């Protein structure tokens, strides 16, 4: 009886150790899964429709705040002020949306600090300014009536004892 119990214990330990796979994240090949927001979000309150275009940014903070905004329900404007403002903030960013009296989205302004930069931006800076390193960044994204009006990065770059501020558009072009 004693040997049967010992044999069962050994078999059970063997099965549990083989059942636990060690799955390491694939950081080297950059196969990171990101949650995609829809390309266009249309909100309606019965009378009017609003269009919001979430940005497909690689940073989690940007995507997270945009997801909060998409899920946010618009409060009724009971004030005399014809424009209401909704502000959502996180530690490294802020999203401000403006609505008219009928709860139609007029515009959205977003600003984030120290975000994960897209590869096109990093590559363009390294190509145009070899030897310079990016030390600080601010990302701006704005839209009005469903049209993107601003999408650029303000970067601070350093090389030895020199410092420079540059403006880089989303396509990687550096403003001179």
TrEMBL record:
Top-level taxonomic group: Bacteria
Name recorded for this polypeptide: Nicotinate-nucleotide adenylyltransferase
The organism of origin for this protein: Flavobacterium laiguense
Gene3D superfamilies reported in the protein's UniProt record: 3.10.450.360
């Amino acid at each position: 009886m004693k040997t049967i119990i010992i044999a069962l214990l050994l078999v059970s330990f063997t099965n549990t150790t083989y059942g636990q796979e060690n799955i390491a994240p694939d950081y080297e090949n950059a196969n990171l899964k990101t949650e995609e927001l829809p390309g266009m979000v249309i909100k309606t309150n019965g009378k009017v429709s609003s269009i919001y275009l979430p940005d497909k940014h690689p940073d989690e903070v940007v995507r997270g705040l945009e997801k909060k905004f998409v899920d946010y329900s618009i409060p009724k404007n009971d004030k005399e002020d014809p424009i209401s403002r909704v502000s959502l903030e996180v530690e490294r960013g802020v999203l401000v949306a403006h609505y008219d009296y009928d709860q139609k989205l007029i515009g959205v302004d977003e600003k984030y600090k120290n975000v994960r930069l897209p590869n096109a931006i990093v590559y363009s800076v390294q190509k145009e300014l070899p030897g310079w390193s990016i030390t600080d960044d601010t990302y701006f994204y704005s839209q009005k009536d469903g049209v993107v009006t601003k999408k650029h990065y303000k970067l601070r770059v350093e090389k030895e004892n020199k410092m420079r501020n540059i403006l880089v558009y989303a396509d990687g072009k550096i403003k001179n």
